[in-house]
Amino acid sequence: MDSRPRKIIHIDMDAFYASVEQRDDPSLRGKPIAVGGGGPRGVVATASYEARVFGVKSAMPGARARRLCPDLLFVKPRFEVYRAVSTHVREIFARFTDVIQPLSLDEAYLDVTENKAGSSSATAIAQQIRRMIRDETGLTASAGVSYNKLIAKLASDQNKPDGICVVRPDEGARFMAQMPVRRIHGVGPVTARRMQALGIETGADLLARDLGFLQQHFGSAAPFYYRAARGEDDRPVHERQERKSVSVEDTFFDDLITQDALVAEIDRIAQSLWTRIEKSGAYGRTVVLKIKFADFRIITRSRSMNAPVRSPDLLAETARALLIAQLPLRMGARLLGLGVHNLDAEEPVEQSQQLSFPL
């Protein structure tokens, strides 16, 4: 068995949707913009770096984004343009390797352990890819280079925008020790709060807990956290993996009980889900509602269509109908989730983890 360290690159386009809009409309350059809906139920899909200075971020309700940044300009998404740019970027990846795992339109893993350029330097390949993206699309991308997927993805976020971070095998444990646990992919907002309550703030804190302790508090996820703290991740880069569903769920600080509060949340979740559907091009025929009650009991309800749902209004209408049919709830809801299943197989793209948006 080949024991050489793998060479993994994670490429992440910088503020992708917003950067495309600023590229195509010079009047938007240097201004705080948000791609998405600016209405009371709209959701920010991506914010430019000028807007992020004010705290505007993805999945944020449009009304809150406007409060944070009164000069914020909302731009309607053009997913057909984003997909075309994404296709071009993936063609650039394919010049170096066929082992490519897209996560969404704006990010992907590449395994360049063996590569078409015959290069022994993953760092040099990452720099070439970033240069080609800039020259051919007018956009910038950040890269993480490491020996596994976990660290490569974290590294790509270290020097954004338009940066690169390289973490070599002998540096992995030290890199993870300094990492806030909330940034480790696989540690969601709820788990991060549980870790914080246990005094686990950083990778070093996580490293100090033995496997038994982690199993006691985090169950089946414990081995992943144990290995992550040590910079270990043996997941391969998948060239292609068919997506089976797309979903979004929110866990609330206070349980929701009233119809107005529940409907408002399911509308917001539907907006977030539609952004994810458009981003991936994965349209499904079955809409699934998930409710977790205050006692942690979970129910799901679904409705199937004759054709894939291709309208945000139909998605929201179906979600509301599924929810209202369960009212009044016997107790408060601590979590609402919404997903689409039975996907149309036009563009299968793997998503490594379900998106979770905290309030």
TrEMBL record:
The keyword DNA-binding applies. One of its GO terms (molecular function) is DNA-directed DNA polymerase activity. Its main location: cytoplasm. It is an enzyme of class 2 (transferase). The keyword Magnesium applies. The record marks Y17 as: Substrate discrimination. The active site is at E107. It catalyses: DNA(n) + a 2'-deoxyribonucleoside 5'-triphosphate = DNA(n+1) + diphosphate. SUPFAM superfamilies: DNA/RNA polymerases, Lesion bypass DNA polymerase (Y-family), little finger domain. Its cofactor is Mg(2+). Residues 8-188 form the UmuC domain. Its EC number is 2.7.7.7. It comes from the Bacteria. InterPro entries: DNA/RNA_pol_sf, DNA_pol_Y-fam_lit_finger_sf, DNA_pol_Y-fam_little_finger, DNA_polymerase-Y, DNApol_IV, PolY_HhH_motif, Rev_trsase/Diguanyl_cyclase, UmuC. CDD domains: PolY_Pol_IV_kappa (cd03586). Gene3D superfamilies: 3.30.70.270, 3.40.1170.60, 5' to 3' exonuclease, C-terminal subdomain, DNA polymerase, Y-family, little finger domain. Keywords: Cytoplasm, DNA damage, DNA repair, DNA replication, DNA-binding, DNA-directed DNA polymerase, Magnesium, Metal-binding, Mutator protein, Nucleotidyltransferase, Transferase. Mg(2+) binds at D12, D106. It is found in: Cytoplasm. Belongs to the DNA polymerase type-Y family. Monomer. Poorly processive, error-prone DNA polymerase involved in untargeted mutagenesis. Copies undamaged DNA at stalled replication forks, which arise in vivo from mismatched or misaligned primer ends. These misaligned primers can be extended by PolIV. Exhibits no 3'-5' exonuclease (proofreading) activity. May be involved in translesional synthesis, in conjunction with the beta clamp from PolIII. This is DNA polymerase IV.
